[in-house]
Amino acid sequence: MTGAKFEQGTREQVKSLVKASHEAKNNSYSPYSKFRVGAALLCQDGTVIKGCNVENASYGLTICAERTALVKAISDGHKQFKAIAIASDMSSSMIAPCGACRQFLVEFGVDWDVYMTKPDHSYKNMKTGDLLPLCFVPDSLDEERISHSA
Ligand code: THU
Questions:
Q1: Counting beta carbons within 10 angstroms of the beta carbon of residue 103, is it exposed (0 to 12), middle (13 to 18) or buried (19 or more)?
Q2: CA-to-CA distance for 65 and 42, rounded, in angstroms?
Q3: Cβ atoms < 10 Å from Cβ of 35
């Protein structure tokens, strides 16, 4: 589907998405963790939407960069995505999305691309569904169910 198409995209497209994810880090609001994260989401129509993590004094209300980007995109009318690049300041590890963000990603398909990057712009690419095996997705709600009284 959408992810497969993007896989054939140029190296340049990936490069610019990775760069945008690192730019997105600059707006990170992370006074508590001091752990900056940025995301750049490539929509089906080519639009790139950036997001950063937004922390909160209550800690638990923190929103990750990936979900910020997705919520911005959805509220702007985008529903199909080709890829997302994620950036942090970790020098030796690629930033991998947290469990909540993985669930958020598969909501919009199990076969689009996630680019997990390092500050030197190197990356590891995986499909959304491969990051969350046996996931619960919108189609799960249409599965045949046993009858119940509630
Ligand atoms: N964070 C993200 O924004 N995305 C991730 O994939 C991992 C974690 C943020 C949440 C919090 O603001 C900070 O990183 C430390 O957990």
A1: middle
A2: 14
A3: 13
Digit-by-digit pLDDT tens for the chain (150 residues) are 455 556 556 789 999 999 999 999 999 999 999 999 999 999 999 999 999 999 999 999 999 999 999 999 999 999 999 999 999 999 999 999 999 999 999 999 999 999 999 999 999 999 999 999 999 999 999 999 999 887
Rounded Cα gap, residues 63 and 132, in angstroms: 19
> How many Å lie between the centroid of ligand 1 and the Cα of residue 75?
21
Q: Which residues are catalytic?
A: 66
Q: 54: buried, middle or exposed (CB in 10 Å: 19+, 13-18, 0-12)?
A: middle
Are 24 and 64 spatial neighbours (Cβ–Cβ below 8 Å)?
no
What CATH number was assigned to the domain covering residues 4-136? Answer: 3.40.140.10
Joined tokens for residue 115: 């680019």
| Closest atom of ligand 1 to CA, residue 95 | 6
32 CA closest ligand 1 atom index: 12
